[in-house]
Amino acid sequence: MNQIVLIVVLPLLAAFLVPIVARMSASLGAALGPLVMGVCLWITGTVAIESAGNAFAINIGGFMPPLGITFFVDRLALLFAFLTALLVLVLWPFQGEHRPREHALTLILAAASGGLALSGDLFNIYVFYELVSVASFGLVATGRRSSAPAIRYLILSGFGSVLALVGIALVYTQTGTLNLAHLSQLAPTHLINPIGLAAFALILLGVGVKAELFPVNTWVPEVYATAPNRVSALLAGLVSKLAALVILRLLVLVFAQEQALLVMLLLGLLGVITGELAAWRAQDMNRMLAYSSIGQLGMVFVAFSIPGETGVFAGLAIALHHLVVKPALFLLAARWGGALSGLAGAAGGNLPAALLFTLFALSLVGVPPLPGFWAKLLLVMGLAEQVGPLYHFALAGILIATVVEANYLFRIVSTLFHRDSPASPAPQKHSGGDIATAGLFGASLIAAVLLLIPLSQSLKTIAQQTADAAAYRAVVTLAPTTSTLGDTQ
Amino acid sequence: MDALHILIELTLMPLVAFVVGLFMVLMMRRIAARIQRRVGPPLLQPLYDILKLYGKQTQISHGILHDIGIIMAVGGYIAAETMLPVPGMNGIADKAGLITLAYVLMVPSLGLALGVGQCANPNGSIGISRALTAMLAYDIPFVIVIFGVAWQAGSNNLVDIIALQQVDGIASWGIVQTPLLAFAGLFALHAILGKHPFEIYIAPAEIATGPMVEMGGKYLGGLFVMQCFQLYTAGVIYTSLFLGGGENWLTFLVKSFAVVAVPICIAYLFPRFRTEDVVRLVWKWPVMLGLIGIAFVMN
Amino acid sequence: MSQELTRMLDTLTKDIAGAKVTLKRARRMRIDVDADALPALLELLQGRGSYVHLSAISCVDWIDDNQFELVYHVWSYESNSLVSAHTRIPRDPGVYLSIYDLYKPAAFFERDIHEMFGLYFEGSPSMEKFILTEWEGPPPMRKDFDAEAWVRDTFTERDYNPEWLKELTDAGGGIAIRPQDIRK
Amino acid sequence: MTPLDYLLLLSLLTVVIALVAGHRSMGGVWLTFTYAAQLGGLMLMAGLTNQPDVITSSLSFTILGQSLTWRYDALSWYFALITISAGLLSTMYTAGDWGEKFRADGGNLWLLHVAIALNVLSMLILLGSGDLLTLFIGWELVSWASFLLMILAGGPSIQAAIRYITYAMGGAMAILAGLALIYGHTDSFTYPAAANILHSLSTAHLWAPLLLLTLGFGVKMALLPLHLWQAAAYAHTPGPGAAFLGAISSRMGLYALIVVLIQLVGLVRVIELPVLFSFISARDVLAWVAAFTIIFPTFTALRQNDARMLLAWHGIGQGGYMLLGLVMGDALGSAGGLMHVFNHATYQAALFFSVAAVVYRTGTADLNRLGGLVARMPLSFLAMLVGIIGLAGLPPMNGFVSKWLVYRSLMLEGEPLLFVAAVVGTLGTILSVYKLIHNMFLGQLRVEHENIREAPWSMTAPMLILSVVVFVTGLMPGLVLQWIAGIQATVGLPVIDYSLGGLDSAQGSLDMLWVVGVLFAGFGIGAVLFYSGGRTHRVHQLDNYAGGHFLSADIRYHYSDNFYPGLMRLIGPLYRYSFAWLESAVQSGLGLLSLSTQGFYRRVAPANYALVTAVLVLLWVML
Amino acid sequence: MIKDIPIIAEQAQQPRRTNPLAHVFDELMNFARSRSLFMLHYCTGCGAIELPPAMTSRFDMERLGIQPMVTPRQADILLVTGYVSIKTLKRIILTYEQMGSPKHVIGICSCTVNGGMYWQSYATAKKLDEYLPVDLYIAGCMPRPEAVISGLQKLIDNIKHGKSDNWKDYYQRYDHYLGNQQHLFGNNWQTPTDVIGEAREYGLFGPQTLGQHTELLESVQKPLQPLEMKL
Fold it and tell me: A218 lies in a domain?
């Protein structure tokens, strides 16, 4: 089962090989990336079957934690590793301008993402996170109009990294370790204090840049609006979720304290409200989707702030739903740029695209029996079970935001289907690949409806496993010295 | 036997109403004449008018609805008369009740409105528009009064209401028990009769008698019959609600004529109000008094 | 006052050939003017003499002179005086200029005169039928139109010789028409 | 397989047929038959109305730890009856020439069929909901199905539909919040659990879920002040669709309210529930909301110049009577409220059908461009006449009976002001419906309409069927009241003591058989009197008194615009303070907020935010 | 002062009904008709000023069952009160035709008799009875209320005895009246009322109902068919 490491190593290797190979044979260079990702997919699949849902840890190079590099593989990690490979494959930039460079960057992104999903210690997380930043920065900058936003993104991202690093440093000063399992052991004694909380806040803000957390997400609209749509799809669909995953891990294992949850809740709620409100007045589709993405991620954070398995369950459900819907929407938006009013009657030439858009919009708003509804229901149920006015306040905020969301999404849907509008220049037809990919997402959404009961059960299992910090600690075998250190303190 | 009995009642009640109504019309015209220092029409004048109108040799119709309108106007009142108890005859009063009566009384207006509509004469439509507006005005105090009386009596059955008032003479009459309601009722009654100052919907010189503009011959005759019924109905409802109904025919008729005489005596002293002034007036005073009256009743 | 008015009018009309101002009564002047000078006169009266109100235009049929006389009555609110401008035009062809551009109310008067006298006003906005919508005959106010003959042609007379009247006539009373009044 | 399964399957089959064959010319006919089959399926369950019983569906799931079940009782049956009948008649109407013309004019007939079938299916699902979760799911399905029906015409309907869906989502989210509050107390969505907890909640805690749920369901019922969406949304839906929506759609809100207020909370509790810091109770609040819902929309309808808009506004107003009757809580009032659902559906559909027939022939529903059509479209006129008498609540139509019950209940409960409000609504309705029928069917026939003909049978048949129903149930209200009594027994209301002709009561009974009998006997005598007079001679409509003026066909001799000038001079200024300002205030407030949040995201130096937030969080942590 | 104008044409006198009940009924109806006269006073000229005194307290027409009405549909007598200009005459004929039979025309003032002081005016019609079947003239310039009431009483007597059937003459000799009207108003003359149709409907045809003038009318008239209900 150690071959799981390959999903980090192989894309990384391939990323360095791609330019070289492409120089030798263009077609081979083009095929290399998807091939590697396919292999990763296969590896993840086999590992998932082999492990049969049990968590295990891998110590790279044989060093025992907390000293060595630890990969922690449980259902959640496998799920995200799988989704990473899958999404990268599906959203592979087949038609970019600078193909080798893009391929290489995408592969790096894939590798780093896989790493983020699997990493079991803070330092590695930081390293992979930086890698993700670099790769995504490169990818964003490939867009024609995206240099200024990319720089903003870079600045914010860099600033976030600094904050995260400071946070990690604080953690290290408090505990002397960066291994999550170890930290988890030490947290009750070392980190339930203002300094621990400060560390969490800093890491949250730092990682939050990628996860579109409220105040550090100002890069999102511009970048998504200007970057190539496949990149936007990757960033919104995948990277943000991985960042959220990191925060989830930290929250469950290390910072499981009330104030931390409170900060998450507040920032998440602010994200929801500002995102949806801003989207309400957005004038073009990409920006609207970007704002909507902020809102959805805010909802994920609100969900994670619910203590225990319920919150994880709800958050994962929303995140996964968003992961399916948003990339597809970005793909559909590829040819629907410009002012929204210019889309009047766009459905005429592009009926499948318009229908898919409607489907995703319905799911996003949360219309039963589409998956979006169940995800939202989970969140609502979770929030309702909590006592405390803030949770109920969050509930109200989310519900109001949903109304706003429904309004703007269906304003667009009606614009698309507007029949008797003056003949505006018809928007371009979508490329077949985009439609097919979006259709794939749509099909998976429909499939999710049909497989709702098994899916919800397996997701619940994942949530259970994820929320169980003790099991995590049990899986990672720590080096005896440090464990005694923890015990003695 | 019972069926025969009720059949006789159902036949007699409208007949009586018609005959009494004829005399009420006469009384109305006589009072008007006396107020204007004239002699006034002879005794059978209302009958002559109706006979003459029905006997017209050529009559014009604007369509089937024009005819049906008149039929509904007359027929609705005939039906309504059977719901008004008179001494010795209850008709179907206990099967219908006050609210039903109030709504059955709208059927003739609706029928008339339909007939007038078919005439395609804007004067008529304007008249109907004003009449309906006036109805909106006067029905509100009217239903307030109905509510008050029904609450007071604990029943909306006119028979019960009358019986309750006859328990101990004048002291148990509605007008003594609930004077405010009685006054509001009188006000509403005046408006219902559509005499000055509430006759903007007729306005002969302005909209050529409004709803009646295209009515000639038996159409107008039907409306004259309807007027008889209308006066009778108004008088009897008020008598039943506030004056203890009729112990016997004599007192019954005296009361009914007296009730109708009051608004008529007032009417010919006034010019007419505009529509909105009618609404404003009727929504202000009788409604206010009626509500105060209800407040007294319900305590 | 009236003297001043006359003087003022004299001054006003001194440039207009043939204009003759006569004082009829206090504040009531008559100006006789040639037909081709009338518009100029009216313009002066309106523009400089403050006679802004056209009260009426009247027409007289001088059949013996074979002329129509047109009288324009204009009123001044400042001096509270009326000026009647008289002019004569030949009956034949009976065409004259409209003063609609000076006085808007002239449209109605001219239309009326056209209907009643058959006089045509060039430049008047409408010479359609005005009041006599049913009238097909010649202009009825012309003196050559014999209304009585027309009536006799159009309507029949009612013979009314009841007994009681006969008695009266026999007794020397009743209705008598003097011989010179009977028209042939 | 229970009868309910058959019913739902049949309904699903209808949707499938609509999907497959909705675009064919015979599709409408097949669909009509499937709706009839659904009606038959429903009749299998007719036993529900006799005893308080429940038929469950064998369909049930357990998702996320919640079990979803569906079941029918007398209440569901009653509403399902109206729903399916409305679907049946609307489809019948669409199936013939109307549909052909709709398609020829560029309408999407297939989508219309699908939308109506989906509406029926989703409503049947909603009506079968066996727990709060299925209630919500059904609710959402109904909302979105109606949205589809409303939006499919394009053009002005889009604005209206968007407005609708925004209101509907607002309502749905309020419901979700209410359900969440209940769930927070019970961890369960089942009715018994919810009922238990609602019974045990203190007054202050009961208010929140109650308010949220009432608001949410009230949106669909278009209770004031949440009513602004409805009229335009219904009116712009194509003919039969509008009839369907007008007949039943917004009554789903009433169904859900009955479930919540009466079955779960219990009307007794609602009646006693005091409004905090005041001396009135929840019932007073609801009753006054209902009363205002009667008055304001009715008088708004009075001002409409489009026949469909006028009817749609009345639909809102009539909803008020239903709620008003229900919250009175006694046997008469609730029976009146429930019966009004049926009655309103029948006459409203007939009215919409009639108006659609006129639009079909003349191409307009503008009340200032019609007139005199009775000579050309007598059957449509008849349907409209019956319909407006029902709508105005005059004898002998069924609308009178239900309103009578409500009035009677208000009298017995001693609510004079509410009573007056209800009567004011009725009077306003009379004014407005007379304007409707006068401006369309009476008065002068326009030259351009000289040669039009009556609508084809496929259109007149449904309206005549409905007219007959309106009359027969007015004559024999006992037919409907027996179902009502079943419902009252099921949901725990006092049961009405009905007879075939109406009601037997010591305090004033109603026997419509007698009333209608006497009324028609009166008409008979009137007719005898009338026809015993001289012969009549029919004249041309231009042979008319005009003060001696000669009328010609090009002169419009018809009074239609600003029909009640006198009244409008008095109350016209009041219309300025309409509820539209509330909506626009919310909208502009939202716009302002949105603008400011966008401003936040547009800042050039984003890192400052991060810095500020980091510092703030750290400060918070340290302090 | 008041003189009957003899009925111009010999009428196809309706045979008296032999059934004694019908006879009584006819008498009753005649009586009722005579005692209930609704009048439409068409105020064409100066004579109208004499009617208000006749109606109000001094003379009080209502004693005789006479009431003013405002539309021709409701009225029985048409009072033409003064000179009749040709334009006005058109309206008078329109109004007359809209009245329901039995209807009576009373010409008040000399002008209606023979033009009066306008005897040589080109603008007024001279003899009303050429255009409408006048029942009664009340001459005078103007007749005082006493004369008006006296005239009305005369009319009442005539009606009571069934002698005032001039309205039938209008139907029976429509061609004659129409000819006179066309003579004055031109060949395009048409009223909205279908007199011939009415005559046909009520069996009031006479030998002169149709003629050359009605032919002319039918060749120019716009449709007068009532709107029949169509399915």
Answer: no
Residue D457 and residue D599 in one domain: no
Q: What is the pLDDT of residues D169-192, one digit of tens each?
A: 889 989 988 888 888 888 888 888
Find the DSSP H helices in B166-298.
174-177, 179-193, 204-207, 217-242, 249-267, 275-298
- Structural domain harbouring A381: 257-450
Residue E6 lies in a domain: no
The answer, yes or no, to whether D and B have at least 3 beta-carbon pairs within 8 Å is: yes
A404 assigned to some structural domain: yes
Tell me the shortest Cα–Cα distance from D370 to chain E, in angstroms.
16
Backbone angles phi, psi at B270, to 5 degrees: -115, 150
DSSP C37: G
Asked whether B and E share 3 or more beta-carbon pairs under 8 angstroms, the answer is yes
State the chains in contact with E (3 or more Cβ–Cβ pairs under 8 Å).
B, C, D
Does residue D560 lie in a domain region? no
Pick from E126, E133, E195: nearest CA to E167: E133
Provide the shortest C-alpha distance from residue D121 to chain A (in Å): 14
Asked if E30 and E134 sit in the same domain, the reply is: yes
Whether the complex's predicted ipTM is more than 0.95 is answered with no
Q: Is the pLDDT of residue E17 over 80?
A: no
Please enumerate residues of D whose Cβ is less than 8 A from a Cβ of E.
372, 374-376, 378-379, 445, 453-454, 535, 537-545, 548-553
Are the CB atoms for A208 and A161 separated by under 8 Å? no
Q: Which residues 6+ apart lie within 8 Å of B68 measured at CB?
A: B111, B114, B115
**β pairing state of C120-122 and C95-97:** parallel
Identify whether residues D385 and D520 lie together within a single domain.
yes
Same domain, D364 and D483: yes
Q: Is residue D90 part of a domain?
A: no
Q: Are residues E26 and E136 in the same domain?
A: yes
pTM beyond cutoff 0.80:
yes
Label residue A212 left, alpha or beta by phi (over 0 means left) and psi (-120 to 50 means alpha).
left
Q: Are residues E226 and E195 in the same domain?
A: yes
Contact between chains at D617 and A263 (C-beta distance less than 8 A) = yes
Nearest CA in chain E to B36: E57
Looking at the structure of chain D, the number of domains it has is: 2
Across the range D61-78, mean pLDDT stands at: 84
A326 in a structural domain: yes
Name the minimum distance, in Å, from the CA of D195 to any CA of chain B. Answer: 36
pLDDT digits (tens, 9 = 90+) for B145-197: 988 888 888 888 888 888 888 888 788 888 888 888 888 999 888 888 888 78
Residues of chain D in contact with residue E227, where contact means CB-CB under 8 angstroms, are 372, 375-376, 445, 540-541
Strand partners for E84: E125
Tens of pLDDT along D228-243?
Answer: 888 888 888 888 888 8
Domain limits for position E134: 15-163
Q: Is residue A205 part of a domain?
A: no
Number of domains making up chain A: 1
Round to whole Å and give the CA distance between D213 and D215: 5
Work out the number of other CB atoms within 10 angstroms of the CB of residue A474: 12
Q: Which residue of E has its CA nearest to D534?
A: E202
Alpha helices per DSSP H over A142-178: 147-175
The answer to whether the Cβ–Cβ distance between A159 and D610 falls below 8 Å is yes
3-state secondary structure of D190: strand
C154–E183 CB contact, under 8 Å? yes
- Confirm whether D177 is domain-assigned: no
Residue D357 makes CB contacts below 8 A (sequence gap 6+) with D377, D380, D455, D459, D460, D463
Q: Residue D590: give the domain boundaries.
A: 579-622
List % helix, strand, coil for chain A (3-state, nearest 5): 80, 5, 20
Same domain? For E125 and E212 the reply is: no
Q: Is E3 within a domain?
A: no
Q: Which residues on chain D are in Cβ contact (under 8 Å) with A163?
A: 610, 614
- Inter-chain CB proximity E32 and B52 less than 8 Å: yes
